[in-house]
Every structure is written in C-alpha cells, then in structure tokens.
Amino acid sequence: MKHINSKDIEGILFDDIVPMLEKLKNKTTGLEYLETILYYLFNAADKINKDETIIRLNNELKNEKIKDKIMTIAEQLRQEGMEKGIEKGMEIGEKKGEAKTVFKQLTLKFQDKAEEYRDMVFNASLEDLDKMVERILTVKKIEDVFK
C-alpha cells in the first residue's frame, strides 16, 4: 500500500484491486480481503471520495455477495462519520459553554475590563478555559486569569 497517498489511488483501486477481488469472489476469504482493503483505503487515504468509490465499486463488481459487503461497509463508515460529527459537535458546544461561563465570571468580577479579553476567552482551548475558571476565584487582577 505504498501508493496510499498517490493522486491516482482510485486508478490503483480499479485497475489493480478490483480485478484481484473478482478472482477471489468464489473464495470465502475474498469478502474478508475486500473488507480489510476497503477499510484501510477509506481510513488511510484522504483523497478518496468514499461515496463515489462505493457507487463505482457497486457498478463494476458483478458478485452480489461482494456488493452486499460493500454496502455494509458503506453504512458502517457513514455511521462512524455521524458519530465523529456528533462527538465533535459536543466538544464545540462544551467549549463554547465554558467560554461563556468564563466571560460571564470575568464580567461579574472585573466589569468593563472583561471586554478587552473577550477574544482571548472565546479562542482559548478547553484546557485553558478550565484553568481560567479556577483562577478567576482567587486572582485580584484580570491579567492573572490568563497566566
């Protein structure tokens, strides 16, 4: 798989791998090979359009067992993508909520001075926001929240 980042990875897939899979279609391990290869390609190669590749594979392959396996893999990949998207959305929401809390605490404690630090707060990492929450309680000067 030394060509995984090649611009012509789809060419390699359809010129080299698909014919090999057609030869393996009557063997029970052929489906296992297919699954392994596709998971590797879809997870390791950024340049592959997963949806287009799955449609093309379904059009070019003749064996129904292989087509069914491809559709199962496609569904699993979609599910994984949705789960990653949900997880990322939750992280963003958590960070945004914590930033709002930090900024509100800054405003309550330091009034108008807090506005100068708005961008700093809303661009901070979740880890830094956690530290700010703790520091706000003990510092005398607003600058010390950000040390």
Quaternary structure of the protein:
single chain
Strand content: under 5%
Overall morphology: rod-shaped
- What's the number of extended β-strand segments? 0
Cα-based radius of gyration, to the nearest Å: 25 Å
Based on secondary structure, the structural category is: mainly alpha
Total helices: the number is 6
Task: List the domain count as a whole number.
Answer: 2
Mean pLDDT, all residues: 82
Q: Helices and strands, in N-to-C order?
A: HHHHHH
Give helix % range: over 70%
Q: What is the end-to-end distance? A: 47 Å
Please give the largest β-sheet: none
Return residue spans where pLDDT drops below 50 for at least 5 consecutive residues.
none
Q: Please, could you describe this protein's structure?
A:
By secondary structure, the protein is mostly helical. It folds into 2 domains: 9-62, no CATH class; 88-146, no CATH class. 71% of the residues lie in helices and 0% in strands. The chain has 6 helices and no strands. The protein has helices at residues 9-24, 30-44, 50-60, 64-110, 118-122, 126-136. The longest helix is centred in the middle third of the chain and has 47 residues, at 64-110. It is rod-shaped, with a radius of gyration of 25 Å. The mean pLDDT is 82.
Summarize the structure.
The protein is mainly α and 147 residues long.
Which helices and strands occur, and which strands form pairs?
Layout: H1 9-24, H2 30-44, H3 50-60, H4 64-110, H5 118-122, H6 126-136
Helix pairs in contact: 2-4, 3-4, 4-6
